[in-house]
Design goal:
The protein has strands at about 15-20, 20-35, 45-50, 50-55, 55-60, 85-105, 110-120, 125-135, 140-145, 150-155, 165, 190-200, 210-215, 220-225, 235, 245, 245-250, 255-260. The chain is mostly beta strands and about 260 residues long.
Length: about 260
């Protein structure tokens, strides 16, 4: 999907993409919306992550983030704390993703390699990062990074390669919102919106847990400018003094479906 929740059948000319294998994620904000007219912040806000202000600029505090992998619980709240009502939509502002991708690396001595890489992807509106570990390698930042900042650790090379970092263009991160026309979200917020197949109704008389599974589409969600058109992600070329080859343009999500178990 694109930012308006419309199905996209092809990538922009000159781009390539792959579907990453997720290790973990983190969210900044969770909200239940009554209907398609419920403006952002006017629904039932369940969760908001810790933020930090630096030089007057607010940012997600990465050092206090919570993480979850596939089939793991990210957040829970007593049902009694949720307002009575019927909710048709779920909003989640994603903050961080960690996943594995395939990369190509050309070395002047050892030749060409098809390798595994791990990406730390920061897609929240703004994140204060002291330091982060991609897989085994750490990167020190001590500052704010806007949506689209990421780092890559390469595995399997006969030589050690330092983590590669980048900053994707502003506004390039895909954030699907099927109700954009009636309930828009700010650009750069990464608030992804999805509709419950069956509405979530809270009566105030619940006696059992309610489990909501959030299915996030990663279909071709890691996207780059494919410099040589080979369809392989080649972030640097050691034959050309490690100059950046393929530049990352999108690390967003392609869709969200909330499922009541």
């Amino acid at each position: 999907m694109n930012n308006f929740g419309q199905e996209i059948l092809s990538l922009p000319a000159g781009n390539a993409a792959q579907s990453p294998i997720f290790n973990s994620m983190s969210a900044h904000y969770i909200e239940l919306a009554f209907d398609s007219l419920t403006l952002l912040g006017k629904g039932e806000i369940l969760y908001k992550a810790d933020e930090k202000t630096t030089n007057g600029e607010s940012a997600i505090n990465f050092s206090k983030a919570y993480f979850a992998g596939n089939n793991e619980v990210f957040y829970s709240v007593p049902v009694s704390n949720i307002g009575v009502g019927t909710y048709k939509w779920l909003r989640i502002s994603l903050a961080y993703q960690n996943y594995d991708i395939k990369i190509k690396y050309v070395h002047p001595t050892y030749g060409s390699f098809n390798l595994d890489g791990t990406v730390a992807s920061f897609i929240g509106f703004n994140t204060y990062i002291d330091a982060y570990t991609i897989k085994n390698q750490s990167v020190t930042v001590n500052g704010n990074r806007k949506q689209g900042y990421g780092g890559l650790e390469v595995s399997g090379l006969p030589v050690t390669v330092n983590p590669i970092t980048w900053q994707a263009p502003a506004g390039a991160t895909t954030v699907p919102n099927p109700i954009f026309s009636t309930s828009p979200v700010p650009q750069g917020s990464c608030v992804v919106t999805g509709r419950f197949a069956n509405t979530l109704t809270i009566t105030g008389n619940e006696t059992e847990d309610i489990v909501v599974i959030v299915s996030l589409s990663t279909n071709k969600s890691f996207e780059w400018k494919d410099k040589n058109g080979d369809g392989q992600f080649q972030p640097v070329n050691a034959l050309n003094n490690n100059l950046i080859e393929d530049s990352v343009v999108d690390m967003g999500i392609r869709g969200l479906i909330p499922i009541i178990e």
